[in-house]
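Today's session is about reading a structure prediction critically. Students often jump straight to the picture, but the first step is always the sequence itself: look for stretches that repeat, for charged clusters, for runs of hydrophobic residues. Only then move on to the predicted structure, which in these notes is written as discrete structure tokens rather than atom positions. Here is the chain we will use throughout the hour.
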Amino acid sequence: MAHVERLTVYPVKALDGMDFESASIRPGGTLAHDREFALFDDAGEVVNGKRTDRVHDLDTAFDPDSGVLTVEHADGRETFALREEAGRERAADWLGAFFDVDLTVERDDSLGYVDRREMGPSVISTATLETVAGWFDDVTVDGLRRRMRANVEVGGVPAFWEDRFVGADAPAFEAGGVRIEGVTPCGRCVVPQRDPDTGEETPDFRTRFIERREETFPEWADRDAFDHFYTLMLIGRVPEADRGETLAVGDPVAVVE
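Below is the predicted structure for this chain, in token form.
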């Protein structure tokens, strides 16, 4: 039976994710706490994994109740109260020194600093992760999950199930009564090519990925909705009527028109 297998949010953009048993939909249409904070340089550009592979040198955890970010690194451990201005300033000083850039830590609790700010949660199936991980000798399912950084993982469906929700006459789906409409396939950047623990690039990742993606492209997907084959994951949208509702692990998932 199709169901929500996992819910993951990334409290600080570019840093580690955390799993929740349930997550509410914010007014902006994204999951609560997802990309609640982001690092910006003095030119207003985001400091993230596309920009520096040093993000892989940090292990981070976030307490959603206290707003405290814990950072484990080669020389020790730091904690920052990110919902307090002084805590964000401390984090900016420490992370700025670590990344060798002047930066600030900003907060947006109504939408979050998602890449596509007019859209909502990202969606992938467990079977997709299992299939794509099998294309590579040294990539595990959990490792691929961390490379792709999806918010909603759907179990009990076939690989590339999420591809059906974009293009002409595409349906939507409901998870526990929350409607999610497909907006666009997610074109991938350099981040999925790296081991999430070491930051080392998997040899020929992009080339092999594109070859196998084209070979296995599902018959139910609208090819015209995909600009290229270096895509994986759906970027969705939650209609305003369903914002404020809650998604939960185990919620049944059904395709709807």
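Discussion point for the tutorial: DSSP finds four helices and 15 strands in the chain.
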